[in-house]
Amino acid sequence: MNDTPAWLSPAEQHAWRAFIRLHQKLSARLERDLKAHKLSGADFQILVALTDTPDGRQRFQDLAHTIEWEQSRLSHQIARMTKRGLVAREECAEDGRGAFVAITPAGRTTIEAAAPHHVATVRRLVIDALGPDELATLARLSNLILEQLDNEPP
């Protein structure tokens, strides 16, 4: 067995580093913009996942799976958001051990205020920078990498 890594070629290294810089800069910019609405990126991710469900709630385990977080991280984040009134924990009547995370009216008001600004930022920084063909390529490439990640053992 060969333990020598398959080093990246100059072109591969350039593409990888550009992708990493893009991810870091875009994440930092979106995080700063959300702070104007007193939300973190983590808050926003959870609120979006909850608003994507018809009743605004998900089982704790399902939410962890949806956003691909470990349960301990989610538990700490939910505790912080509960203190701020954005979400509430609800007991599960069918399963005494399970719990739901539900968006509160304050959480819904907060995300409804933040979402238009967030979408405008995404549009300005990403969508408007690309033509229709480039946007389709971005989606195709992103889906290829996501498929690779989904097929890789955790």
From TrEMBL:
Superkingdom per UniProt: Bacteria
Residues in HTH marR-type domain copies: 12-147
Record-level GO BP terms: response to stress
Chain segments annotated as transmembrane: none
A GO molecular-function descriptor: DNA-binding transcription factor activity
SMART domains: HTH_MARR
InterPro entries: HTH_MarR-typ, MarR/SlyA-like, WH-like_DNA-bd_sf, WH_DNA-bd_sf
Protein name (Swiss-Prot/TrEMBL): MarR family transcriptional regulator
